[in-house]
Specification:
The complex is a heterodimer of chains A (about 290) and B (about 240). Chain A is an alpha+beta fold. Helix content of chain A is about 20%, strand content about 15%. The model of chain A has no long low-confidence stretch (mean pLDDT about 95). Helices cover about 50% and strands about 0% of the residues of chain B. Classes of the chains: A alpha+beta (about 290), B mainly alpha (about 240).
């Protein structure tokens, strides 16, 4: 298939994979990769969670309620970084309430005070403790770094015979200390409500409970934009420095990411890129 | 949590944080998959618990509903896909020790909890480790009962069965040599409770009242506010303050 203009929007890492697999004598390192930056500076949202049992909420009053999630209650970043030991910030999503009982319902009942066992008392404990849990999920900003990247796996291919990516990840103290702050904050909130946290504070060795890179599934970067063609793949219009009729319109162009979900920003950038393409076409420049 | 309901290891939501296992769950949360929400609301399940997508959970619910009699007519008997006939007998007895019938609702088998568990364990999404843990745990239970009473669990008397259950149902006071039984029972209890309380019988038992049309939103009922010592007054006072 031949096209005048090619727009890649396969998702951040997949677009990088397509570029890296598009090697030719003209582009021996992969298409649009003279900088060697394709696949580099992948970022994800940081995350950690704490849930607690709130005694005051036991033996709930039945009423029409579906439980509360991050869509209902959301706390934006509220602190001044000059007084903190990490840059940037995070938001908090709050969970709890009388959600529909489903698979996973009140797993780990033995962790509630005096609960466990079997039989009628156990059955009563489920009734008593239903809805008496509140959870906090912190979702924060990572500082992109050069140790977090993807590249073609030299041995593994997919079912079509096309080489797949392999990933390398390294959080820095920026993220670990942010996670520590989340953990301490959420534990303080549970304590303030007279509650009890279900698990001990994760140690430094456990990374203060920081999620595994990629597990919050907000992977961005890998085809980043920038002014300098030596350190970036795309220009400010998401147009490849090396190849003016090639654009990337997904999470790939991101240089960093805010703590919030990236979808709307991906849409905004794609819109902007579309406008640019239209304008360039009208001028006969593309 | 995002926008997707992707596979288990992907948790846009609460993850392996607090020293506890993955906690995810939700009703279209901003950043947590539905499954994540489900787990979080229920509190993080212990060790490797549930790895099922919403689709699978809903299929299981439909399957269980289809086992209920329609107009007095019994549907065809359920044929276990995961459990062997011998395991099936054990599971049915054991599940009713976990959730027995009482004045408010029926038992685990009344709610078709064993059928739900069998369905889930036979799903490809279920990890081999989970399957192994269930099979091995049931075998452990029989070995332990034979050691003590020269009878498998099903063949033991009620008092004998309770003797073994009392040794494994309370993790905090269980003797160290009971650790395998404790791990198995924690998991079995979680599964039985999930099966029972996610059924229609379980929803009625818990007086779950969501999923119903609200013609006029009147806020949280006064009794529920009172219980927590909160009110809408603060919010209402603030509205006029700067006039």
């Amino acid at each position: 298939m031949r096209a005048r203009i090619v727009v890649l929007a396969a998702s951040a890492c997949e677009s990088a994979r397509i570029l890296l697999n598009s090697r030719s004598s003209q582009f021996p390192q992969g298409l649009a990769n003279s900088s060697g930056m394709v696949g580099k500076y992948v970022t994800d949202t940081t995350g950690t969670d704490v849930a607690g049992f709130i005694p005051m909420m036991t033996d709930h009053v039945p009423h029409n309620e579906e439980g509360v999630g991050g869509m209902h209650l959301y706390m934006p970043w509220w602190l001044d970084n000059r007084k903190l030991d990490f840059p940037r910030g995070y938001h908090i999503e709050v969970w709890g309430g009388l959600g529909p009982p489903q698979a996973g319902f009140m797993g780990g009942i033995q962790r509630y005070p005096g609960a466990g066992g079997y039989g009628v008392k156990l059955k009563n404990d489920y009734r008593k403790f239903y809805g008496a849990t509140i959870g906090f999920s912190g979702r924060g900003e990572m500082i992109p770094n050069e140790d977090s990247y993807c590249e073609l796996d030299p041995r593994v291919v997919d079912q079509y015979g096309i080489p797949v990516l392999r990933f390398h990840w390294k959080w820095s103290d920026h993220e670990y200390l942010q996670s520590k702050h989340m953990q301490e904050t959420f534990r303080a909130l549970v304590a303030e409500m007279g509650g009890e946290v279900f698990s001990p504070m994760p140690s430094k060795e456990r990374g203060y409970g920081l999620s595994t890179g990629g597990s919050i599934i907000h992977e961005l970067g890998a085809v980043r934009m920038g002014k300098d063609p030596r350190t970036s793949v795309l220009n400010a219009n998401c147009q490849a420095h090396d190849c003016r009729n090639l654009f990337v319109a997904d999470g790939g162009p991101f240089v960093s990411q805010a703590d919030k979900n990236p979808t709307w920003t991906i849409l905004a950038l794609a819109w902007r890129t579309s406008d640019y393409i239209t304008e360039q076409r009208k001028q006969g420049a593309l | 949590m995002s926008e997707h309901d992707a596979g288990l290891p992907m948790a846009d939501g609460p993850t392996e944080a607090a020293g506890a296992p993955p906690i995810p769950l939700a009703a279209e949360p901003a950043d947590v998959s539905r499954r994540d929400l489900v787990k979080l609301l229920g509190m993080a399940p212990l060790a490797g618990a549930l790895d099922w997508s919403q689709v699978t959970v809903e299929r299981a619910a439909r399957m269980v509903r289809a086992l209920q009699p329609v107009d007095g007519e019994q549907p065809a008997a359920y044929k276990p896909k995961f459990f062997t006939p011998r395991e099936w007998r054990t599971v049915r007895v054991l599940a009713d020790y976990v959730i027995p019938r009482d004045e408010r609702s029926g038992s685990a088998t009344d709610a078709k909890a064993p059928e739900w568990m069998d369905f889930m364990l036979s799903e490809p999404e279920t990890s081999d480790n989970s399957r192994l843990a269930m099979r091995g745990g049931l075998a452990w239970l029989d070995v332990e009962c034979r050691r003590r009473f020269a009878q498998p669990f099903v063949g033991a008397s009620d008092a004998q069965r309770r003797q073994v259950l009392d040794d494994i149902a309370w993790p905090d006071r269980a003797r160290p040599e009971m650790s395998y039984g404790v791990a198995f029972f924690n998991r079995f209890r979680d599964l039985t409770a999930a099966a029972f309380f996610s059924s229609q019988m379980g929803w009625q038992d818990l007086q779950y009242m969501g999923h119903t049309f609200v013609p006029e939103w009147q806020g949280c009922p006064p009794a529920a506010l009172q219980k927590l010592g909160v009110s809408y007054d603060l919010m209402n006072t603030r509205v006029g303050i700067q006039r």
